[in-house]
């Protein structure tokens, strides 16, 4: 059986015309999103949901959305399960019925297996191994196995994604939130050791119900020297921007980097952007839609192990629309160039902390009794400052030697087509370049 997905027409055309999908070509623009794809870089998302948990569409429909829009890899990160085994999904709401109609239109009634139970239509979900061959192709698109390890401490949701897993990981629990985070990270690391494959865990949306603090992230130990946290998440309910008592997620990342590198003398924590998509049947700022944030990974090959290994080495940047033509980060120097869109202005900022900042945070004195979740301490305003700002599409920063780390942030004048919040502009963020004294 062959699914009736629109991208198959494009695949057929690509087979006839050399170079249409040749990753060695300099660049091309995806016809749907006009996203440039540069040689050596692969576009992907590590956090999205389907009918296997709380997404509003079946996995094939979700995969089609990303495949058609120029993504090269995708992690279907459903809550506490991978897409395996037998699972019947009830279609008992109007959005679910809408998703079922789309599913049937795309894949046909001979592919979609259904039954009626107590007046409700149920769909037998296909496993990843059953549907992956419809989408995967060399140097074009792959799935990377994973899941959202969904734990809870008292009223606080504690979530993290395991990426490139071989089998599901049961939430590990813990006597407190730092212990819970550590045990779940350790479970991913241990599975990677046993399998001999590169795996990693990224802490998801720290500001979701304000469950995770700066101090929790600083305390995490990473046996393999790599740590990850979502510094951008496209879900409108995860409070990227924080509030009066809680720092925004980018500010959290800067504090964590500063304290881990300079105070604890431990490993870097890479920031990651995702869309955390749940909704494909309704669209708008208040919906949890795909395509808001993603990673661009530099890797010689498009395979699950190669992509995961590259990310563990920090060979990626984050984007909500800005694409880099060039990026080098070594020997205390960051150089980058943006692929410019006509009529769009760009500002490239270099952000970091310098030696001498204060590490000790002060307890918040005016926390309202009904303030949600937990609050990080208040830290030195000199943490995560703008070290230089350049208008244009090219920039270079040479470290002076007194920086703890430096990272680049690109802000464009172009509004995001389907933003996390009204007024969001397309952006990009590099990983931190650690400056050794």
Describe this structure in words.
Helices cover 20% and strands 28% of the residues. The protein has two domains: 7-87 and 125-322, TIM Barrel; 91-124, no CATH class. It is globular, with a radius of gyration of 22 Å. It has helices at residues 7-16, 59-68, 94-107, 128-131, 177-195, 214-219, 249-263, 304-312; strands at residues 27-29, 36-38, 41-45, 73-74, 88-91, 114-117, 120-124, 142-143, 146-153, 156-163, 200-203, 227-233, 269-274, 294-298, 316-319, 324-330, 333-338, 346-354, 385-391, 394-398, 403-415, 425-429, 433-434. The longest helix is centred in the middle third of the chain and has 19 residues, at 177-195. Strands 3, 4, 8, 14, 15, 18, 19, 21, 22 and 23 form a ten-stranded mixed β-sheet that branches. Strands 9-10-11-12-13 form a five-stranded mixed β-sheet. It has a three-stranded antiparallel β-sheet with strand order 5-7-6. The protein has 437 residues and is of the alpha+beta class.
List the helices and strands and how they pair.
Elements: H1 7-16, E1 27-29, E2 36-38, E3 41-45, H2 59-68, E4 73-74, E5 88-91, H3 94-107, E6 114-117, E7 120-124, H4 128-131, E8 142-143, E9 146-153, E10 156-163, H5 177-195, E11 200-203, H6 214-219, E12 227-233, H7 249-263, E13 269-274, E14 294-298, H8 304-312, E15 316-319, E16 324-330, E17 333-338, E18 346-354, E19 385-391, E20 394-398, E21 403-415, E22 425-429, E23 433-434
Parallel strand pairs: 3-4, 4-8, 11-12, 12-13
Antiparallel strand pairs: 1-2, 3-14, 5-7, 6-7, 9-10, 10-11, 14-15, 15-22, 16-17, 17-20, 18-19, 18-21, 21-22, 21-23
């Amino acid at each position: 059986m062959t699914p009736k997905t629109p991208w198959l027409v494009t695949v057929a055309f690509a087979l006839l015309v050399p170079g249409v999908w040749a990753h060695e070509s300099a660049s091309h623009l995806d016809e749907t999103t006009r996203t440039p794809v540069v040689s050596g870089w692969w576009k992907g998302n590590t956090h999205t949901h389907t009918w296997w948990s709380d997404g509003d569409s079946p996995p094939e429909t979700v995969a089609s959305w990303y495949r058609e829009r120029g993504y090269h890899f995708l992690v279907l990160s459903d809550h506490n399960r991978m897409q395996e085994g037998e699972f019947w999904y009830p279609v008992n709401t109007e959005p679910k019925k809408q998703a079922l109609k789309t599913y049937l239109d795309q894949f046909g009634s001979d592919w979609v297996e259904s039954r009626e139970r107590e007046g409700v239509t149920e769909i037998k979900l296909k496993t990843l191994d059953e549907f992956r061959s419809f989408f995967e192709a060399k140097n074009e698109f792959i799935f990377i196995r994973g899941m959202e390890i969904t734990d809870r401490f008292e009223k606080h949701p504690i979530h993290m994604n395991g990426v490139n897993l071989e089998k599901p990981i049961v939430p590990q629990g813990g006597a407190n939130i730092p212990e819970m985070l550590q045990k779940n990270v350790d479970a991913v690391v241990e599975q990677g050791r046993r399998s001999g494959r590169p795996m990693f865990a990224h802490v998801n949306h720290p500001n979701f119900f304000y469950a995770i603090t700066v101090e929790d992230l600083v305390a995490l130990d990473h046996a393999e020297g790599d740590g990850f946290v979502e510094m951008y998440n496209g879900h409108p309910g995860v409070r990227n921007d924080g509030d009066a008592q809680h720092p925004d997620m980018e500010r959290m990342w800067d504090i964590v980097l500063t304290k881990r590198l300079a105070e604890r003398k431990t490993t870097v924590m890479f920031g990651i952007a995702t869309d955390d998509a749940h909704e494909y049947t309704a669209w708008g700022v208040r919906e949890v839609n795909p395509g808001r944030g993603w990673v661009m990974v530099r890797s010689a090959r498009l395979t699950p192990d190669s992509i995961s290994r590259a990310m563990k080495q920090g060979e990626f940047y984050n984007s909500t629309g800005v694409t880099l033509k060039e990026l080098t980060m070594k020997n205390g120097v960051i150089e980058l160039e943006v692929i410019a869109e006509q009529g769009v202005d760009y500002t490239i900022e270099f952000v970091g902390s310098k030696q001498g900042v204060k590490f000790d945070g002060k307890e918040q004195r005016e926390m309202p009794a009904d303030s949600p979740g937990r609050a990080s301490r208040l830290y030195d305003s000199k943490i995560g400052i703008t070290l230089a700002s350049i208008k244009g599409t090219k920039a270079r920063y040479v470290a002076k030697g007194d920086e703890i780390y430096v990272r680049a942030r690109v802000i464009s004048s172009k509004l995001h087509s389907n933003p996390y919040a009204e007024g969001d502009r397309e952006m990009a963020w590099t990983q931190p370049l650690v400056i050794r004294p």
